[in-house]
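User: Good morning. I'm curious how pyridoxal-5'-phosphate would be positioned relative to this chain. Could you predict the structure with it bound?
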Amino acid sequence: MAGSTGVLPAPKGYLKRLREICDKYGILLIFDEVITGFGRLGHAFAAERYGVVPDLVTFAKGVTAGAVPMGGVVARKGIYDAFMKGPEHVIELFHGYTYSAHPLAVAASLATLDLYKQEDLFNRAKKLEPLWYDAAMSLKGTPDVLDIRCVGLTCGIDLAPRKDAPGKRGYESLEYAFHDLGMMLRAAGDTLCVSPPLIVSEAQIGEIFEKLGKVIKAIQ
Ligand SMILES: Cc1ncc(COP(=O)(O)O)c(C=O)c1O
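Assistant: Good morning! Here's the predicted structure, ligand included:
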């Protein structure tokens, strides 16, 4: 699903069809899993949820639980080999960043991956999905709510834009949520986006959507 643009799920069969088209024309299929990776959709990666294998996967946020900056890319073996097995006299694609494999980031990511496994958090996200969905849908019918979409532990709530001021209601909502209710929201235009940590409790899910209801009603 497209996260940054407001939780837009791919239509049924869309990703499989993309895979077929890419295979047919020799195009690399790249999944940006910066939001969807590491359990957000109840699987290690969204690729698993949708049963489609891309050629490259980019990742970031969840690899360190957002605690330390780190990003990466996973490549199919053939692509990896093309970069790493060049002519005899060179070692590999000679490219690096100042902070590549920074020890602090690597330590944070290894600790995060251990916790994901020990606490079975990807399955936890999967089990919480129906409860999350029901809680989100309880906002249906709230004034100014046009649409609500959930995929895994994410939710996008489209609000009616103010006349001649698209994005204003979204921005006012996140300010109100933060300053008055102590809740951090993200707004993509007039779409409120929510994605809790995978350790969110059932009570906290209730609290999140109760507060969202308050925000939407307050920002008339
Ligand atoms: C889906 C998606 N891709 C990529 C990025 C950018 O990632 P980074 O800042 O790790 O380069 C973001 C940032 O929010 C994102 O949401």
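The chain has a mean pLDDT of 95. Residues 121-218 form a domain with the Aspartate Aminotransferase, domain 1 fold (CATH 3.90.1150.10).
Let me know if you'd like a different ligand tried.
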